[in-house]
Amino acid sequence: MSKKNRIVELCCFAVLAIICSCNTANKEQVRPNIVFIMSDDHAYQAISAYGHGLNHTPNIDRIAEEGAIFTKGYVTNSICAPSRAVMLTGKHSFVNGKVDNQQAFDWSQDNVAKQLQKAGYQTAMIGKIHIDGLPQGFDYSNVLPGQGQYYNPDFIENGVKKQYHGYCTQITTDIALDWLKNKRDKSKPFLMLYHQKAPHRTWMPEKKYLDLFEDSTFTPPANFFDNFENRPVAAEHEMGIWEHMDLVYDLKMLDDEGEFQTRYRPNAQNIYNRMDEEQRAAWDAHYKPIIEEFKELKPEGKELALWKFNRYMKDYLATIQSVDDGVGQVLDYLDEEGLAENTIVIYTSDQGFYLGEHGWFDKRFMYEESFRTPILMRFPKEIKPGTVVDGLVQNLDFAPTFLDYAETAIPEDIQGESFRSLSEGKTENWRDAIYYTYYEYPGEHHVQRHYGVRTDRYKLIHFYYDSDTWELYDLEEDPTEMTNLYNNPEYAEVQKQMHARLIEIRKKYGDSDELNRFHLNRFLNNR
Ligand code: SGN
Ligand code: CA
Q1: How far is residue 266's CA from residue 269's CA, in Å, rounded to a whole number?
Q2: Ligand 1 within 6 A of CB of 80
Q3: What average pLDDT does the segment 330-337 reach?
Q4: Percentage of the residues of the chain whose pLDDT score is greater than 90
Q5: Nearest C-alpha to atom 5 of ligand 1 is from which residue?
Q6: Angle formed by the axes of helices 301-336 and 277-297, nearest 10°
Q7: Would you list the DSSP string of 399-432?
Q8: For the CA atoms of 406, 408, 413, 417, what is the dihedral angle to 10 degrees?
Q9: In this structure, are residues 144 and 168 in contact, taking their beta carbons and an 8 Å threshold?
Q10: What's 332's DSSP letter?
């Protein structure tokens, strides 16, 4: 090769190298960051953007104002750890194996954090995870063991346990901010799972918010005194505010005189003992007058039910205020760093929650309040402010959506679908039915095993194992699901069609009675 040709060849290589490196740099700049915020048991009714008027959550609302609110966000299995496993894997519980809170999760299977990590993302898991074992797929993890504690919680940082002093929600936010500011590799895009324990039972507010709702009076939902006519399975529940909510453990009536010897009083005492002197002083200053007042009032019957409902709402909503503050702090950080434009921010919960509907707290049932979950999402680059997404979306869809935005291939075996184009307003070819399964029975709160299908208008549920009960609802006529229409002759055709939809959707996702038996036997053998 002549000297001249050699020089030309070298120049070509140099130009090519520059083009390639520019492309990589561009790609790095272009791929969005993802902040996936999730709280535990946060009912959509308790986010002001959803318009129920119970409380004011300005920071969470901001995500929807500057982005999108999802009106039909649902989970596939309304219980904590399974919901998280679904989000991580993009697969239904009966496929990823984590069907209930007790069953071990197999961390060796693929998950969205592993996939994004492989694609060059920095990944972090902070806060409540409720899945045992060192989280896999994360460059950094700092998680609560099990349910975690509201006051002075333990955390497990990259496998090492240590106790923090203070209030869990704020600590979780501080850890998230510390990772964003000081720990991540700033040359890479990031995925941060920032997951709050609040507002999970036993709804312990932060010191500064103890009094926030003290002057409010809450009116319960119209079906608070539900008599469960036509719904024998729901009638068996153990999640009634009136009948099952513990006066001392849930509602903080830990009196010095020991007058209220309830079932869970010892647990309440343990939680109280965990606080330091200053925390206890603030706690007592707030609750002692309420205990005195309750002793004087001695409410009974329906009056007691309404008193309990009000105490529940005050504490539950107060814990949410700290969650909202944390969201604000993270959004501020994104603004300050100029990251807001190219960062997807999602706010969701591991499932919905009952705020007195049917007289309940807790979740688990396929009825709307616990089947549904809040989803709010901001991505200024692609989503117009004030977007309302009405398509049926499930927590199954988060993993493929993240991969889609990250320009990373979605593995074929992922069962969810990316809602990227739905969020931009393209509704064609979107699904018109969703599938649900629930397994944790026999168990706390006594909710039978069930599965079902929901379309835009109808819902068909089958309770099995200790029961063989079908329920059918017309959500347009009966949005609070008070009238079971199964075997109602007027709905014979709808019933037939919904059975067909159920068979079809179970086939689509690979569920069956045989799998239900398998999970039941595994559950019974592990007890
Ligand atoms: C705990 C709660 C239950 C709750 C489950 C599951 N009891 O066991 O009320 O249903 O968690 O919640 S408590 O006495 O420990 O508070 S989940 O969100 O983790 O699935
Ligand atoms: Ca939960």
Answers
A1: 5
A2: yes
A3: 98
A4: 93
A5: 444
A6: 150
A7: HHHHHHHTT-PPPTT--S---HHHHTT--TT--S
A8: 40
A9: yes
A10: H
Distance from the CA of 138 to the center of ligand 1, in angstroms? Answer: 26
Q: Ligand 1: which residue has its CA nearest to atom 18?
A: 80
How many angstroms does the Cα of residue 92 sit away from the middle of ligand 2?
A: 17
Distance between CA atoms of residues 499 and 491, nearest Å: 12
Q: Establish whether residue 201 lines the binding site of ligand 1, counting it when its CB lies within 6 angstroms of any ligand atom.
A: yes
Q: What's the CA gap between 122 and 251, in Å, rounded?
A: 41
Residue 188: pLDDT over 80: yes
Residue with tokens 């909510």: 245
Asked whether 54 and 218 are in contact (CB, 8 A), the reply is yes
Give residue-wise pLDDT tens across range 342-389.
Answer: 999 999 999 999 999 999 999 999 999 999 999 999 999 999 999 999
| Residue 149: other Cβ atoms inside 10 A | 20
* Rounded Cα gap, residues 208 and 187, in angstroms: 38
CB of residue 357 inside a 6 A radius of ligand 1: no
Number of H helices, E strands in the chain: 15, 16
Distance of alpha carbon 281 from alpha carbon 20, whole angstroms: 63
Check if 250 has its Cβ closer than 6 Å to any atom of ligand 1: no
Residue ranges of alpha helices (H) inside 337-419 are 368-371, 398-405
Segment 174-178 long-range contacts (CB within 8 Å, at least 24 positions apart)? 175/126, 175/127, 175/142, 176/124, 176/126, 176/127, 176/326, 176/330, 177/329, 177/330, 177/333
Q: Is 41 in the pocket of ligand 1 (CB under 6 A)?
A: yes
Q: Which helix (H) or strand (E) holds 454?
A: strand 450-455
Q: Predicted confidence band at 20 (pLDDT cuts at 50, 70, 90)? A: very low
**Cα distance between residue 405 and residue 7, in whole Å:** 42
**Per-residue model confidence as pLDDT tens digits over 220-248:** 999 999 999 999 999 999 999 999 999 99
Nearest to 308 by CA among 326, 290, 292, 322: 290
- Give the whole-angstrom CA distance, residue 402 versus residue 125: 15
DSSP per-residue letters across 78-95:
-SHHHHHHHHHHSS-HHH
Range 114-135 burial, b when 16+ CB lie within 10 A, else e: bbbbeeebbbbbbbbbbbeeeb
d(CA 93, CA 449): 13
Give 216-227 pLDDT, tens digit per residue: 999 999 999 999
Give the residue with greater pLDDT, 15 vs 95. 95
Residue 333: which residues within 8 A CB-CB, separation 6 or more? 177, 180, 181, 339
Q: Is 69 helix (H, G, I), strand (E, B) or coil?
A: strand
Show the tokens assigned to 181.
């500011």
Q: Are 99 and 439 in contact (CB under 8 A)?
A: yes
Q: Which residue has the tokens 């004087």?
A: 296
pLDDT at residue 18, rounded to an integer: 46
Mean per-residue pLDDT, 442-463: 98
Q: Please write the tens of the pLDDT for every residue from 115-173.
A: 999 999 999 999 999 999 999 999 999 999 999 999 999 999 999 999 999 999 999 99
